[in-house]
Amino acid sequence: MRGDLTIRTVRTASGATAVQVVQNKGKQRSSLKHIGSAHSEHELELLMAEARQYAETHCRQPNLFAETSPPPPPSSFQDAFTRSKLIGVTHQFARKVLLACARKCGLGDLPELYLDLALMRIIEPASKLRTLELLESHFNVQYARRTLQRMLPKLLEHQAAIEGAAIQTAHDELQEKFSLVLYDVTTLYFESFKEYDFQKPGFSKDNKPMQPQIVIGLITTRSGFPVMHEVFEGNTFEGHTMLAIVRRFQERVGETKPVIVADAAMLSKANMQQLEKEGYCYIVGARLASTAAGFIDQIDRTLPRTDKAMHRFIYVAVENATMICEFSDARYKKDKREFDKQVKRALDLLERNEPGRRAKFVKKSKKKDKSFIFDTVLQAKTEKLLGVKGYVTNIPEKTMSSAEVVAYYHDLWHVEQAFRMSKSDLQARPIFHRTQEAIRAHMLVCFMGLMMGKYLEINTKRSLRQIRKELLQVHEAHIRNEQTGEVLVMQMDTGDFAGSVLSSLLNSELSH
Fold first, then answer.
1. Is residue 288 included in any domain, yes or no?
2. How many CB atoms lie under 10 A from the CB of residue 290?
3. What is the Cα–Cα distance from 296 to 315, expressed in whole angstroms?
């Protein structure tokens, strides 16, 4: 008891013990400060000490009936120092901020274990068992290994709610109207050479063709905020992943049908015809090198070779589709450097009589000796496309200009950046799980971490790496008075970014 303030403990739904400081007003009580939730006796002791300190500082009247006499004032700073012992250093401020971010993203109703697993993908990604150790060392939060093993598969029961929260956050917090969404695919490999029912070798984007993998499809908003994901078997062709996830997304957002933007890997006649049939507009990258020679000649004759020049062509391969071709000086310089290297490599191999090694412009002759020759036809075809990029769409020019179509396609870097972030910052790969259920749960944890990370990046204009660095610079020192046993928690200054920018962004949730 501290004057008109009381310390109260409450059992939460997740089994933790919440420590609160409440204010007494006659017969009424009102919550003044939520100190935190404890998962162990040690953590409860620390939170109670923090609550006592807070109550002592904010009480309106002195405590007239102190249970013990206060120790005599130290004769010097050295006396006070020798009576105290540093018993631990934590990063509870970082956890408090990231839990507030999780609540901002609509994830606050989930059991705290799932939120802790997700925020640890941001703080220090590791295996699930190592994560339990880090939660204790960083935050004094303890979970039993058996609890993790029991609860992790049950996370899949919350997938619909989590993706619903992502869509709602994008709409309410980021003002997204879902008039356009970005779709892309990546692969994640396993630290094993043994394939199972779900993880199988396939076309690897991680340059691990011999190791089993899974395929991940991700839908993001134009700003790169993730709203839906799906996990596919490792040998799934990425072009076959799009329609299923787009339909599922459509069920969530209602009648509004967004423009689907995807890269050239999604370009198939069947995909575009099905999107057209179901009433979707699309913008996909084109594989110009695989188009007919006559069409390439038409591009060469029609498209001006001036920077940012564009021209629309009828794309006869798909009904109601057109192809926009754009020339770029920067792209031309890049393509020309690569083209010159490939030509030189082919000529060098032929001169050394080593044509069997891979080279783009080397082909077998029609002679009986099956000798190799330089492919002048392919050289001419490739040279006509230097600096040219194609985009296929079913959106009429009167509805959307060619420049707008190209600009929308260029937004695909956001979803590519989200994949890079999940692979590097959140370390979604390599995967150590074996069962399909555990793999899907792992990816859902990473999806939650991606939600939180992208929300902070979009709103603070800082990279996730910078945000993590700022958060981890704030420590709490736990100091115990060896005479009284009381533990004092001293937090470092939060600094301008953590204390001002993040507090302003998460203000309503930080007060929980």
1. no
2. 8
3. 12
Choosing from 70, 99, 115, the residue where a domain stops is 70
Is there a domain that residue 389 lies in? no
Tell me which range, 50-54, 452-456, 475-479, is most confidently predicted by mean pLDDT. 452-456
In terms of domains, do 438 and 369 share one?
no
Residue 395 resides in a domain:
no
pLDDT exceeds cutoff 70 at 179: yes
220: CB partners within 8 A, 6+ apart: 181, 182, 226, 227, 414, 415, 418
Flag whether 341 is in a domain.
Answer: yes
Determine the pLDDT at residue 3.
47
Mean pLDDT over the full length of the chain: 82
Q: What would the pLDDT profile of 220-237 be if each residue is shown by its tens digit?
A: 888 889 999 988 886 777
- The answer to whether 494 touches 504, Cβ cutoff 8 Å, is no
Looking at the structure, tell me whether residues 257 and 163 fall in a common domain.
yes
DSSP type of residue 154:
G
- pLDDT tens column, 142-169: 999 999 999 999 999 999 999 999 999 9
Backbone angles phi, psi at 24, to 5 degrees: -95, 125
The domain total for the chain is 3
Query: Is residue 40 a contact partner of residue 51, using CB atoms and an 8 Å limit?
Result: no
Same domain, 100 and 245: yes
Domain holding 195, by residue range, is 91-263+412-512
96 has a pLDDT exceeding 80: yes
Report how far Cα 305 is from the mean position of its chain's Cα atoms: 39
Question: What pLDDT is recorded for position 386?
Answer: 96
Task: Write down which residue in 70, 103, 126 finishes a domain.
Answer: 70
Q: Do residues 500 and 369 both lie within one domain?
A: no
Give the pLDDT of residue 64: 46
Is-cis flag, bond preceding 430, omega within 30? yes
Residue 402 — very low, low, confident or very high, per pLDDT cuts 50/70/90? very high
DSSP states along 368-407:
TT--EEE-HHHHHHHHHTTTEEEEEE-S-TTTS-HHHHHH
Look up residue 372 and give its amino acid.
F
Task: Count CA atoms closer than 13 A to 411's CA, side-chain side.
Answer: 20
Instruction: Read off the amino acid at residue 368.
Output: K
- Same domain for 54 and 102, yes or no, is no
Examine the domain organization and report whether 251 and 122 are in the same domain: yes
Q: Which residues contact 92 (CB under 8 A, 6 or more apart)?
A: 36, 139, 140, 476
